[in-house]
Amino acid sequence: MDTHALTWPKDGNTRVPYRVFSDPDVYRTELDRLFLGPTWQYLALANELPNPGDYKTTFLGETPIVVTRGEDGEIHAMVNRCAHRGNLVCLKRQGHTDDGLTCVYHSWNYDLAGNLKSVAFRRGIGGKGGMPDSFKLADHGMRKLRTDHFAGLVFGTLSEEAPPLAEYIGNEIGGRLGRVMRATPKVLGTTSQMLHNNWKLYVENVKDTYHATLLHTFFTTFRVSRLTAGGGVAVSEGGGNHTSYTRGRADTLGAAQSDKLYASIQSMRDGLSLTDPRLLESTEEFGDDITVQILSVFPNFVVQQIHNSVALRLVLPKGPTETELQWIYLGFEDDDEAMTERRLLQSNLVGPAGYVSMEDGAVGNFVQRAIVGAEGEHSVIEMGGFDHRSDNTRTTEASIRGFWHAYRPLMGY
Ligand code: FES
Ligand SMILES: [Fe+2]
Known about the structure:
Shape: globular
Number of helices: 10
Strand content: 25-35%
Number of domains: 2
Bound molecules: FE2/S2 (inorganic) cluster, fe (ii) ion
CATH topology of the largest domain: Naphthalene 1,2-dioxygenase Alpha Subunit, Chain A, domain 1
CATH architecture of the largest domain: Alpha-Beta Complex
CATH class of the largest domain: Alpha Beta
Oligomer: single chain
Protein backbone atom coordinates (compact mmCIF):
# COMPACT_ATOMS: atom_id res chain seq x y z
CA MET A 1 0.00 0.00 0.00
CA ASP A 2 1.42 3.41 -0.93
CA THR A 3 1.78 5.52 2.22
CA HIS A 4 1.13 8.67 0.31
CA ALA A 5 -2.26 7.34 -0.68
CA LEU A 6 -3.32 8.15 2.89
CA THR A 7 -5.53 11.22 2.71
CA TRP A 8 -6.01 12.96 6.02
CA PRO A 9 -9.65 13.75 6.85
CA LYS A 10 -10.59 17.32 5.95
CA ASP A 11 -11.33 18.18 9.60
CA GLY A 12 -7.58 18.31 10.25
CA ASN A 13 -6.19 17.57 13.68
CA THR A 14 -9.58 16.69 15.16
CA ARG A 15 -9.74 13.47 13.13
CA VAL A 16 -7.09 10.75 13.07
CA PRO A 17 -7.43 7.83 10.64
CA TYR A 18 -7.12 4.55 12.58
CA ARG A 19 -4.87 3.26 9.81
CA VAL A 20 -1.91 5.21 11.23
CA PHE A 21 -1.95 2.94 14.28
CA SER A 22 -1.43 -0.34 12.44
CA ASP A 23 -0.26 0.13 8.84
CA PRO A 24 3.29 -1.26 8.33
CA ASP A 25 3.99 1.30 5.57
CA VAL A 26 3.01 4.20 7.80
CA TYR A 27 5.24 2.71 10.51
CA ARG A 28 8.19 2.33 8.13
CA THR A 29 7.78 5.95 7.02
CA GLU A 30 7.71 7.11 10.67
CA LEU A 31 11.03 5.39 11.36
CA ASP A 32 12.58 7.32 8.46
CA ARG A 33 10.87 10.68 8.67
CA LEU A 34 10.31 11.11 12.40
CA PHE A 35 12.84 9.02 14.27
CA LEU A 36 15.69 9.46 11.76
CA GLY A 37 14.35 12.87 10.74
CA PRO A 38 14.53 16.39 12.22
CA THR A 39 13.48 15.52 15.77
CA TRP A 40 15.49 15.45 19.01
CA GLN A 41 15.21 12.27 21.05
CA TYR A 42 16.26 11.56 24.62
CA LEU A 43 19.50 9.56 24.90
CA ALA A 44 20.79 9.75 28.48
CA LEU A 45 21.18 11.76 31.65
CA ALA A 46 24.33 13.84 31.32
CA ASN A 47 25.65 12.53 34.64
CA GLU A 48 24.83 8.91 33.86
CA LEU A 49 28.17 8.48 32.04
CA PRO A 50 30.57 10.26 34.42
CA ASN A 51 33.94 8.88 33.26
CA PRO A 52 35.68 8.69 29.87
CA GLY A 53 35.02 5.19 28.54
CA ASP A 54 31.52 4.90 30.08
CA TYR A 55 28.87 3.99 27.54
CA LYS A 56 25.22 3.00 27.22
CA THR A 57 23.01 1.86 24.36
CA THR A 58 19.59 3.08 23.33
CA PHE A 59 17.53 3.72 20.19
CA LEU A 60 16.38 6.40 17.77
CA GLY A 61 13.15 4.70 16.78
CA GLU A 62 14.41 1.17 16.06
CA THR A 63 17.92 2.29 15.10
CA PRO A 64 20.43 1.17 17.75
CA ILE A 65 22.55 3.94 19.25
CA VAL A 66 25.60 3.94 21.50
CA VAL A 67 26.24 6.94 23.74
CA THR A 68 29.72 7.43 25.23
CA ARG A 69 31.73 9.76 27.45
CA GLY A 70 34.76 10.45 25.29
CA GLU A 71 38.39 10.99 26.20
CA ASP A 72 37.66 14.68 25.62
CA GLY A 73 35.06 14.63 28.42
CA GLU A 74 32.24 15.23 25.94
CA ILE A 75 29.21 13.03 25.29
CA HIS A 76 29.26 11.36 21.86
CA ALA A 77 26.57 9.32 20.19
CA MET A 78 26.81 7.05 17.17
CA VAL A 79 24.64 4.56 15.37
CA ASN A 80 25.56 1.24 17.02
CA ARG A 81 26.46 -0.42 13.74
CA CYS A 82 29.88 -1.49 12.53
CA ALA A 83 31.03 0.24 9.34
CA HIS A 84 32.41 -3.11 8.12
CA ARG A 85 29.46 -5.45 7.69
CA GLY A 86 26.86 -3.94 9.94
CA ASN A 87 27.28 -5.80 13.21
CA LEU A 88 26.19 -4.30 16.55
CA VAL A 89 29.35 -2.82 18.06
CA CYS A 90 28.15 -2.56 21.67
CA LEU A 91 26.21 -5.56 22.89
CA LYS A 92 25.62 -4.45 26.47
CA ARG A 93 23.07 -2.02 27.79
CA GLN A 94 25.64 -0.15 29.78
CA GLY A 95 29.36 -0.54 30.46
CA HIS A 96 32.85 0.84 30.52
CA THR A 97 35.76 0.36 28.15
CA ASP A 98 39.42 1.30 28.40
CA ASP A 99 40.31 0.62 24.78
CA GLY A 100 37.54 2.12 22.66
CA LEU A 101 34.78 0.13 21.02
CA THR A 102 35.66 -3.14 19.33
CA CYS A 103 33.30 -5.09 17.10
CA VAL A 104 33.24 -8.79 18.03
CA TYR A 105 32.81 -9.95 14.43
CA HIS A 106 36.21 -8.99 12.89
CA SER A 107 37.69 -6.76 15.59
CA TRP A 108 37.42 -3.39 13.90
CA ASN A 109 38.23 -0.94 16.66
CA TYR A 110 36.75 2.56 17.08
CA ASP A 111 37.56 5.36 19.49
CA LEU A 112 34.89 6.73 21.85
CA ALA A 113 33.79 9.24 19.22
CA GLY A 114 33.20 6.48 16.64
CA ASN A 115 36.33 7.04 14.52
CA LEU A 116 37.81 3.84 13.10
CA LYS A 117 41.24 3.27 14.68
CA SER A 118 42.34 -0.16 13.50
CA VAL A 119 41.33 -3.09 11.31
CA ALA A 120 42.55 -6.61 12.14
CA PHE A 121 44.82 -8.12 9.44
CA ARG A 122 44.74 -4.84 7.55
CA ARG A 123 48.10 -5.65 5.91
CA GLY A 124 47.19 -9.30 5.39
CA ILE A 125 49.43 -12.24 6.34
CA GLY A 126 52.87 -12.75 4.80
CA GLY A 127 52.20 -10.20 2.10
CA LYS A 128 48.94 -11.86 1.06
CA GLY A 129 45.44 -10.59 1.47
CA GLY A 130 44.64 -7.55 3.58
CA MET A 131 42.97 -4.32 2.68
CA PRO A 132 43.81 -2.54 -0.57
CA ASP A 133 46.05 0.56 -0.29
CA SER A 134 43.09 2.73 -1.16
CA PHE A 135 41.34 1.79 2.10
CA LYS A 136 41.42 4.76 4.50
CA LEU A 137 40.45 4.38 8.19
CA ALA A 138 39.09 7.92 8.15
CA ASP A 139 36.46 6.96 5.56
CA HIS A 140 34.89 4.23 7.70
CA GLY A 141 33.79 5.56 11.06
CA MET A 142 30.52 4.82 12.84
CA ARG A 143 27.71 7.16 11.83
CA LYS A 144 27.63 10.12 14.25
CA LEU A 145 24.65 11.87 15.79
CA ARG A 146 24.36 15.52 16.75
CA THR A 147 23.93 15.74 20.51
CA ASP A 148 22.80 18.58 22.74
CA HIS A 149 21.93 19.06 26.43
CA PHE A 150 18.97 20.59 28.22
CA ALA A 151 18.45 20.61 32.00
CA GLY A 152 20.86 17.72 32.51
CA LEU A 153 19.30 15.62 29.75
CA VAL A 154 21.15 14.61 26.58
CA PHE A 155 19.24 14.48 23.32
CA GLY A 156 20.39 13.33 19.88
CA THR A 157 19.37 13.58 16.26
CA LEU A 158 20.65 12.27 12.95
CA SER A 159 19.31 15.27 11.09
CA GLU A 160 21.16 18.45 10.20
CA GLU A 161 17.77 20.16 9.84
CA ALA A 162 16.65 19.84 13.47
CA PRO A 163 16.73 23.33 15.06
CA PRO A 164 18.88 23.91 18.18
CA LEU A 165 17.52 21.79 21.06
CA ALA A 166 16.45 24.75 23.25
CA GLU A 167 14.45 26.16 20.35
CA TYR A 168 12.96 22.73 19.62
CA ILE A 169 11.75 22.38 23.22
CA GLY A 170 10.54 25.99 23.38
CA ASN A 171 10.56 28.53 26.22
CA GLU A 172 7.46 27.54 28.11
CA ILE A 173 7.97 23.77 27.99
CA GLY A 174 11.68 24.33 28.65
CA GLY A 175 10.87 26.29 31.81
CA ARG A 176 8.59 23.54 33.04
CA LEU A 177 11.20 20.91 32.24
CA GLY A 178 13.80 22.92 34.18
CA ARG A 179 11.34 23.16 37.07
CA VAL A 180 11.36 19.38 37.56
CA MET A 181 15.04 18.82 36.69
CA ARG A 182 15.93 21.35 39.37
CA ALA A 183 19.14 19.68 40.65
CA THR A 184 21.58 16.95 39.67
CA PRO A 185 19.46 13.84 39.19
CA LYS A 186 20.25 10.34 40.38
CA VAL A 187 18.61 7.21 39.04
CA LEU A 188 16.65 5.36 41.74
CA GLY A 189 15.64 2.51 39.46
CA THR A 190 14.31 1.59 36.03
CA THR A 191 11.57 -0.63 34.64
CA SER A 192 10.59 -1.58 31.14
CA GLN A 193 7.31 -2.92 29.85
CA MET A 194 6.01 -4.04 26.47
CA LEU A 195 2.83 -2.33 25.36
CA HIS A 196 0.88 -4.31 22.79
CA ASN A 197 -0.12 -1.25 20.85
CA ASN A 198 1.22 1.31 18.42
CA TRP A 199 3.61 3.82 20.04
CA LYS A 200 1.36 6.77 19.14
CA LEU A 201 -1.53 5.36 21.16
CA TYR A 202 0.67 5.68 24.23
CA VAL A 203 1.83 9.18 23.27
CA GLU A 204 -1.79 10.25 22.78
CA ASN A 205 -2.55 8.81 26.21
CA VAL A 206 0.24 10.83 27.84
CA LYS A 207 -1.02 14.01 26.22
CA ASP A 208 -4.62 13.24 27.09
CA THR A 209 -5.39 15.39 30.13
CA TYR A 210 -9.05 14.46 29.85
CA HIS A 211 -8.78 10.74 30.61
CA ALA A 212 -6.64 10.92 33.73
CA THR A 213 -9.37 11.32 36.33
CA LEU A 214 -11.86 9.09 34.49
CA LEU A 215 -9.76 6.05 33.59
CA HIS A 216 -7.63 6.27 36.73
CA THR A 217 -10.07 5.80 39.58
CA PHE A 218 -7.18 5.81 42.03
CA PHE A 219 -6.55 9.47 41.18
CA THR A 220 -10.13 10.43 41.78
CA THR A 221 -10.84 8.28 44.80
CA PHE A 222 -7.77 9.34 46.74
CA ARG A 223 -7.81 12.92 45.44
CA VAL A 224 -4.40 12.77 43.82
CA SER A 225 -5.77 14.64 40.84
CA ARG A 226 -9.21 15.75 39.72
CA LEU A 227 -10.28 17.93 36.85
CA THR A 228 -12.22 19.98 39.37
CA ALA A 229 -8.92 21.11 40.88
CA GLY A 230 -7.18 24.02 39.16
CA GLY A 231 -4.72 23.42 36.37
CA GLY A 232 -4.21 23.61 32.67
CA VAL A 233 -2.25 22.54 29.67
CA ALA A 234 0.59 24.28 27.84
CA VAL A 235 1.22 23.34 24.21
CA SER A 236 4.31 24.43 22.27
CA GLU A 237 3.79 26.58 19.20
CA GLY A 238 4.50 23.72 16.79
CA GLY A 239 2.12 21.53 18.78
CA GLY A 240 4.52 18.66 19.48
CA ASN A 241 5.53 19.40 23.07
CA HIS A 242 3.19 19.81 26.00
CA THR A 243 2.83 20.11 29.75
CA SER A 244 -0.28 19.50 31.77
CA TYR A 245 -0.43 20.49 35.42
CA THR A 246 -2.69 20.22 38.41
CA ARG A 247 -2.62 23.24 40.66
CA GLY A 248 -3.05 22.78 44.37
CA ARG A 249 -4.95 20.14 46.22
CA ALA A 250 -8.13 22.10 46.73
CA ASP A 251 -11.08 21.62 44.42
CA THR A 252 -12.13 24.82 42.73
CA LEU A 253 -15.71 23.53 42.97
CA GLY A 254 -15.44 22.55 46.62
CA ALA A 255 -15.05 18.97 47.85
CA ALA A 256 -18.73 18.11 48.04
CA GLN A 257 -19.56 19.39 44.56
CA SER A 258 -16.56 17.60 43.14
CA ASP A 259 -17.53 14.32 44.83
CA LYS A 260 -21.02 14.68 43.37
CA LEU A 261 -19.71 15.27 39.86
CA TYR A 262 -17.33 12.32 39.96
CA ALA A 263 -19.91 10.07 41.61
CA SER A 264 -22.28 10.75 38.73
CA ILE A 265 -19.67 9.66 36.19
CA GLN A 266 -18.79 6.66 38.30
CA SER A 267 -15.07 7.02 38.42
CA MET A 268 -14.97 7.36 42.18
CA ARG A 269 -15.23 4.67 44.80
CA ASP A 270 -16.77 5.78 48.08
CA GLY A 271 -15.51 4.81 51.49
CA LEU A 272 -12.14 3.47 50.40
CA SER A 273 -9.00 4.34 52.28
CA LEU A 274 -5.38 3.30 52.06
CA THR A 275 -4.08 0.89 54.68
CA ASP A 276 -0.76 2.69 54.48
CA PRO A 277 -1.43 6.41 53.99
CA ARG A 278 2.31 7.13 53.64
CA LEU A 279 1.89 6.31 49.96
CA LEU A 280 0.30 9.68 49.36
CA GLU A 281 2.17 11.77 51.90
CA SER A 282 4.07 14.23 49.79
CA THR A 283 6.16 17.29 50.51
CA GLU A 284 6.42 20.49 48.58
CA GLU A 285 9.72 20.53 46.70
CA PHE A 286 9.29 22.75 43.66
CA GLY A 287 8.33 26.01 45.34
CA ASP A 288 4.91 26.21 43.69
CA ASP A 289 1.52 24.59 44.20
CA ILE A 290 1.72 22.23 41.21
CA THR A 291 1.12 18.71 42.48
CA VAL A 292 1.10 16.84 39.16
CA GLN A 293 2.96 17.83 36.01
CA ILE A 294 3.19 15.63 32.92
CA LEU A 295 5.42 16.88 30.11
CA SER A 296 6.25 15.54 26.67
CA VAL A 297 8.80 16.39 24.01
CA PHE A 298 7.97 15.30 20.45
CA PRO A 299 7.99 12.55 19.44
CA ASN A 300 8.55 10.08 22.28
CA PHE A 301 9.88 11.51 25.54
CA VAL A 302 7.96 12.15 28.76
CA VAL A 303 8.88 13.69 32.11
CA GLN A 304 6.52 13.10 34.98
CA GLN A 305 6.10 14.67 38.40
CA ILE A 306 3.27 13.17 40.41
CA HIS A 307 3.68 14.61 43.90
CA ASN A 308 7.28 13.56 44.73
CA SER A 309 7.48 10.81 42.14
CA VAL A 310 9.70 11.99 39.29
CA ALA A 311 10.30 9.77 36.28
CA LEU A 312 11.42 9.92 32.68
CA ARG A 313 9.59 7.76 30.17
CA LEU A 314 10.94 6.76 26.79
CA VAL A 315 8.48 5.39 24.26
CA LEU A 316 10.32 3.09 21.84
CA PRO A 317 8.56 1.71 18.77
CA LYS A 318 9.13 -2.01 18.22
CA GLY A 319 6.90 -2.67 15.24
CA PRO A 320 3.54 -1.31 14.07
CA THR A 321 1.69 -2.68 17.12
CA GLU A 322 4.43 -3.21 19.73
CA THR A 323 6.07 -0.60 21.94
CA GLU A 324 8.65 -0.69 24.69
CA LEU A 325 7.99 1.77 27.47
CA GLN A 326 11.04 2.50 29.60
CA TRP A 327 10.70 4.21 33.00
CA ILE A 328 13.63 5.90 34.70
CA TYR A 329 12.76 6.85 38.29
CA LEU A 330 14.70 9.84 39.55
CA GLY A 331 15.72 11.45 42.78
CA PHE A 332 18.07 14.38 43.22
CA GLU A 333 21.48 14.75 44.76
CA ASP A 334 20.16 16.81 47.68
CA ASP A 335 17.51 14.24 48.73
CA ASP A 336 17.75 12.95 52.30
CA GLU A 337 16.85 9.38 53.15
CA ALA A 338 13.24 10.23 53.96
CA MET A 339 12.81 11.89 50.55
CA THR A 340 14.28 8.88 48.73
CA GLU A 341 11.91 6.61 50.66
CA ARG A 342 8.98 8.89 49.78
CA ARG A 343 9.88 8.89 46.10
CA LEU A 344 10.20 5.11 46.04
CA LEU A 345 6.84 4.68 47.78
CA GLN A 346 5.12 7.09 45.41
CA SER A 347 6.68 5.35 42.43
CA ASN A 348 4.13 2.61 43.08
CA LEU A 349 1.67 4.92 41.34
CA VAL A 350 3.46 4.45 38.03
CA GLY A 351 5.37 1.83 36.07
CA PRO A 352 4.08 -1.47 34.65
CA ALA A 353 1.90 -2.32 37.66
CA GLY A 354 1.36 1.22 38.96
CA TYR A 355 -1.87 2.05 40.78
CA VAL A 356 -2.46 4.67 38.11
CA SER A 357 -0.40 3.79 35.06
CA MET A 358 -1.44 0.14 34.87
CA GLU A 359 -4.57 1.29 33.07
CA ASP A 360 -2.56 3.24 30.49
CA GLY A 361 -0.66 0.05 29.71
CA ALA A 362 -3.94 -1.76 29.09
CA VAL A 363 -6.09 0.79 27.33
CA GLY A 364 -3.76 1.18 24.33
CA ASN A 365 -4.18 -2.50 23.56
CA PHE A 366 -7.96 -2.23 24.02
CA VAL A 367 -7.94 0.46 21.32
CA GLN A 368 -5.59 -1.56 19.12
CA ARG A 369 -7.96 -4.53 19.26
CA ALA A 370 -11.02 -2.41 18.57
CA ILE A 371 -9.68 -0.70 15.46
CA VAL A 372 -8.89 -3.89 13.54
CA GLY A 373 -10.73 -3.60 10.24
CA ALA A 374 -11.46 0.09 10.80
CA GLU A 375 -8.46 1.46 8.87
CA GLY A 376 -10.76 3.75 6.90
CA GLU A 377 -12.44 5.18 9.99
CA HIS A 378 -11.13 7.80 12.39
CA SER A 379 -11.18 9.07 15.96
CA VAL A 380 -12.85 12.30 17.13
CA ILE A 381 -10.68 14.76 19.07
CA GLU A 382 -12.87 17.79 19.76
CA MET A 383 -12.77 18.18 23.56
CA GLY A 384 -11.85 21.82 24.18
CA GLY A 385 -12.37 22.85 20.57
CA PHE A 386 -10.37 22.52 17.38
CA ASP A 387 -7.00 24.16 17.98
CA HIS A 388 -3.94 23.20 19.97
CA ARG A 389 -3.47 26.29 22.08
CA SER A 390 -2.49 26.36 25.75
CA ASP A 391 -5.48 26.59 28.05
CA ASN A 392 -6.21 26.98 31.75
CA THR A 393 -8.32 23.85 31.86
CA ARG A 394 -7.45 20.18 31.49
CA THR A 395 -10.88 19.35 30.13
CA THR A 396 -9.42 19.51 26.66
CA GLU A 397 -7.66 17.41 24.02
CA ALA A 398 -5.62 20.39 22.77
CA SER A 399 -2.26 18.72 23.32
CA ILE A 400 -3.33 15.62 21.35
CA ARG A 401 -4.31 17.86 18.43
CA GLY A 402 -0.91 19.48 18.88
CA PHE A 403 0.82 16.13 18.43
CA TRP A 404 -0.94 15.50 15.12
CA HIS A 405 -0.23 19.06 14.07
CA ALA A 406 3.50 18.35 14.46
CA TYR A 407 3.26 14.81 13.02
CA ARG A 408 1.41 15.46 9.78
CA PRO A 409 3.84 17.76 7.93
CA LEU A 410 6.79 15.52 8.81
CA MET A 411 4.94 12.54 7.37
CA GLY A 412 3.63 14.42 4.36
CA TYR A 413 -0.04 14.07 5.39
S1 FES B 1 31.18 -6.44 11.11
FE1 FES B 1 32.31 -5.36 12.60
S2 FES B 1 34.31 -5.92 12.26
FE2 FES B 1 33.23 -6.97 10.74
FE1 LIG C 1 -3.20 7.83 32.09
